Amino acid sequence: MGELQEREDRLRTLMLASLAGDSASYRRLLTELTELLRRYFQRRLYDHPSGQVDDLVQETLLAIHARRITYDPNQALTAWVYAIARYKLVDLLRRSRQSKHLPIDDVADFIADDTVSAQSTDDRHDLDAVLDTLPEGTRGLIRRVKIDGQSIAEVAAATGMSESAVKVAVHRGFKTLLARFGGKQ
Amino acid sequence: MTDDLIARLVDDLKPVPAGALQRRLLLAALLGLAVSMPLMAIWLGFRPDLREATGSAIFWIKSGYTAGLGLAGLWAVEQLSRPGHRGRRPLRVALALVMATAIASIVDLALAPVEARPNMLMGSSALLCPFFIMALSLPFFVAGFAFMRRTAPTRLALAGAAVGLAAGALGAWVYSFHCTEGGLPFLALWYSLGIAVVTAAGALAGRVLLRW
Predict the structure, then answer these.
(1) Which pLDDT band, with edges at 50, 70 and 90, does A1 fall under?
(2) Which of A20, A27, A86 has its CB closest to that of B10?
(3) Set of chain A residues whose Cβ sits within 8 Å of the Cβ of B16
């Protein structure tokens, strides 16, 4: 019998005892699962802040506790635990993507939006002041795309940069601006 | 920090009896029925010829088709409420039922004289039928989502669709006690359409309502 199978049998026995109300088994189960989950999340979040691993471990333990009614005794316990862990992981990645990253396409829409283009002189001054906080290269790109209304392709041709490099530079510049002036972002 | 959490969870441990999840699902289905059936009786009324109708094959085919789909839907709900389950078998059963009824209807239509066909397909309540089914499925839909939200589905759209399938089919089953249509093609088209709409609504709602 393999090591994994041994662990599965041990954890499953602890789980069945826990479902029957045995606190000592439950404590041992949760302690072992904490280690299992920590390793699972650490392997997948190596480039994330370490606090996130602990948060996810705790969130998953809470979910295991609150939703333990969904454990099917005929199912492998580790499969059940990993399915919950994977759901929590995907949920975290989806949330952090939504809050941290602005897809490049959205930025392009934003740039094309008429309401952003400078209409009055006052707006124009504000815009200049805001843009001046950016490095010169990025400022030039944003100015061409946003204020002069040139397409990404035109700017790329004029500056000798690749289209994706222009997009990325504009995107980064925008993120910087949003971080400085956009409040929550 | 995690040790504190474990201590709190251990303190909060209460036994979970075997079959607790299935019992909770059964309760949700019965709650839906307890609202949907009286709603049909008061609003639409049982068909006046119910006693004679129970002697006809088509009454039992309508009742069996919708009940069968409803049970397959409940089975899928039970499976998809558990993390890591895909609910493939119940969904295959449901698909087989729909296909078998559709094929039988096509044969039925093909064998019938041309002038009888429009009535077999359209009856006298074709356009109303899906809407009544949707309305009568609503209590099951609400009870089903209340159940599913307390479980741990990992495929949210599919889990929502399973709730929709169970709700739509059970709503259609309740409706079959009012409906006097006698055509198999009518059942295959309009009943299935009503159930399909509720299933699609469940899939859409699942993405939003079932996050945990």
Answers:
(1) low
(2) A27
(3) 19, 68-69
SS (H, E, C) A67-96: CHHHCCCCCCHHHHHHHHHHHHHHHHHHHH
Using pLDDT thresholds of 50, 70 and 90, give the confidence band for residue B101: very high
Type of residue at A100: K
What is the rounded CA–CA span in Å between residue B47 and residue B63? Answer: 14
- Residues with Cβ within 8 Å of A178's Cβ and at least 6 positions away in sequence, in order, are A102, A185
pTM: 0.76
Burial class of A120 by CB neighbour count within 10 A (0 to 12, 13 to 18, 19+): exposed
The C-alpha atoms of residue B114 and residue B97 are separated, in whole angstroms, by 26
What six digits make up the tokens of B191? 């009943």
B34: helix, strand or coil: helix
**Measured between beta carbons, which residues in chain A are less than 8 angstroms from residue B12?**
65
Tell me, what's the pLDDT at A137?
A: 77
Residues in chain A: 185
Does the CB of A86 have a partner CB in chain B at under 8 Å? yes
Q: Is B92 on the interface with A (CB under 8 A)?
A: no
Report the candidate in A18, A31, A22 with the shortest Cα–Cα distance to residue A68. A18
How many C-beta atoms lie closer than 10 Å to residue B94's C-beta? 25
Cα B37 from Cα B58, distance rounded (Å): 20
Percent of chain A at pLDDT > 90 equals 39
Q: Do A26 and A13 meet the contact criterion of CB atoms below 8 Å apart?
A: no
Which tens digits make up the pLDDT trace of A72-89?
A: 998 899 999 999 999 999
Whether A145 has a pLDDT exceeding 90, the answer reads no
Whether residues A70 and B9 touch (CB distance < 8 A) is answered with no
B79 in contact with chain A, both atoms CB, cutoff 8 A: no
- A146 vs A7, more confident: A7
ipTM of the complex: 0.88
Test B1 with A67 for CB contact under 8 angstroms.
no
Nearest to B154 among A19, A62, A83 (CB): A83
